[in-house]
Amino acid sequence: MAKKEKTGRVLFKAGQSGNPKGRPKGSRNKATLLARKMMENDLDEIVSQVIEKAKSGDFECQKLILSRLLPQVKNYPLDIKIPEINSPNDLKKAFNIINKALGSGKIDLDQAEKWSNILKIVKDATLLDELEERLLALENKKTK
């Protein structure tokens, strides 16, 4: 049994739950159950009204219906060609292509940011390769 403070609060050991069995699996929130129960009788009418409003041009109702029926496309192939990166000049060309695509609306800001992050990783890896080559050249020069 857990100890009690003078105020009457129960003290539990650190890392020990006050309800070790936890909430039963599959149980629903009481407020959600109540709301569903209240809506059950009127659900057909509510759905019909939303559809009618959407048909008559209510943008919010259209948006609601479409967001439920059609999943939002997050990743799709992009119609831009990035050159193979072999030099810092290639990186500049790639960034220019991304900026032009963003400016023309071919890609959105999120996609431009993802492309830019990829190019930054390539740039960092290229710099590390160059530094390693220089270091090896210096070490070879020193040993001769």
Task: Note down, in words, how this protein is organized.
- By secondary structure, the chain is mostly helical.
- Among the domains are: 31-72, no CATH class; 88-143.
- Helices cover 60% and strands 3% of the residues.
- It contains five helices and two strands.
- The chain has helices at 30-40, 43-55, 59-69, 88-104, 109-143; strands at 3-4, 10-11.
- It has a two-stranded antiparallel ribbon with strand order 1-2.
- A hairpin with a 5-residue loop joins strand 1 and strand 2.
- Helix 2 crosses helix 3 and helix 4 runs antiparallel to helix 5 (109-143).
- The model has no long low-confidence stretch (mean pLDDT 85).
Q: How would you briefly describe this protein structure?
A:
With 144 residues, the chain is an all-alpha fold. 60% of the residues lie in helices and 3% in strands.
Number of strands: 2
**Average residue-wise pLDDT:** 85
Largest sheet: 2 strands, antiparallel
Number of helical runs? 5
Which structural class best describes the helix and strand composition? mainly alpha
Tell me the radius of gyration.
Answer: 30 Å
Strand percent estimate: under 5%
H/E series: EEHHHHH
Shape by Cα distribution: flat
Helical residues, percent: 55-70%
Which stretches are poorly predicted, pLDDT < 50 over at least 5 residues? none
Through-space gap between termini:
77 Å
Assembly context of the chains? single chain
Name the strands of the widest sheet in spatial order: 1-2
Features:
5 helices; two-stranded antiparallel sheet; mainly alpha; 144 residues; 2 strands; flat
